[in-house]
């Protein structure tokens, strides 16, 4: 056989193989895309043990997609797709678009534009309120419950293996091997892909990992220890939410809650609980009736003589500490609760704040107008007071302690940030 004949033979054989593959995928209604013709702006974004991962633009769909190489035969690739299709109807499973080939076969699926959950928390945590946090927690619990209903458990369920797309939780169905949990206990061998694939064993492992994930969503970073004796939580976390985390991570595995119980308890958490159910909020920050010298702020008996004056000073201390501790989303609820707990009239408090000739109260006045505390909401007036607080000069004779200096700087930053925010944002 001459080189020319051999070349022609190889070309014909390759063409026939591609035709067979194309017809096979077409028969199963699996889109097959030409790599060279369909994909542009291909960029490597990662690598797993099972293959390389790329970001690209799919021309025909006009979408940004993820391409993942897989070292599988045609039959194996077909099986992958069939297994994924059982799961992809769930909103929290990455959508599958088709298959391409560049040497190895490559899966084409939805691109998660917010990266992993860990990245998402790192970049957005300070802007997340409890509506967002509870939504993420419920989505994760819901999709894990869906997997368990299909006899699947997810190994290494952590924030580095969970994705976020437009703020919505996404799991990769192509890391999943669908197999009976019971069967796996008798047949656990190397046929399954390694993490973050799905290993079919006791679902309690997922529930334990879920507790750690919920804690990370609450705090913004993975926890070191989760026990009732040594817990680290952000002030404002609902009691029921913390209890779920602790129940999932307690030493006795037999007492871990079922995934159905976790889902139910998360669904029962309502944001109205935030006013009465968060951990020790008023006891740790709000019970400040006797806060004077202990906090480094001298008692000014000549100017703070009445009960209202003393209350306003304590309210200001509380307001300042909330900002210093970065509990911005919880501030309106916390301030309203503080006022209610002390049986004060918010309108009278606002009147006294405006009447006081103390520049450091102007941020708090702006805050009251912004969040309709003691008055109707007026963003224009709020911004005016924030501007005054930003540009105002504070009499250093009032408070010269280190604590006050830190609070003053914090309030200055707070007013400046509020000025930059959309005045209609709530």
Automatic annotation (TrEMBL):
<dbReference type="InterPro" id="IPR011009">
    <property type="entry name" value="Kinase-like_dom_sf"/>
</dbReference>
<dbReference type="GO" id="GO:0004674">
    <property type="term" value="F:protein serine/threonine kinase activity"/>
</dbReference>
<protein>
    <submittedName>
        <fullName>18395_t:CDS:1</fullName>
    </submittedName>
</protein>
<keyword id="KW-0418">Kinase</keyword>
<feature type="domain" description="Protein kinase">
    <location>
        <begin position="39"/>
        <end position="426"/>
    </location>
</feature>
<keyword id="KW-0067">ATP-binding</keyword>
<dbReference type="GO" id="GO:0005524">
    <property type="term" value="F:ATP binding"/>
</dbReference>
<dbReference type="InterPro" id="IPR000719">
    <property type="entry name" value="Prot_kinase_dom"/>
</dbReference>
<dbReference type="InterPro" id="IPR051681">
    <property type="entry name" value="Ser/Thr_Kinases-Pseudokinases"/>
</dbReference>
<keyword id="KW-0547">Nucleotide-binding</keyword>
<keyword id="KW-0808">Transferase</keyword>
<dbReference type="Pfam" id="PF00069">
    <property type="entry name" value="Pkinase"/>
</dbReference>
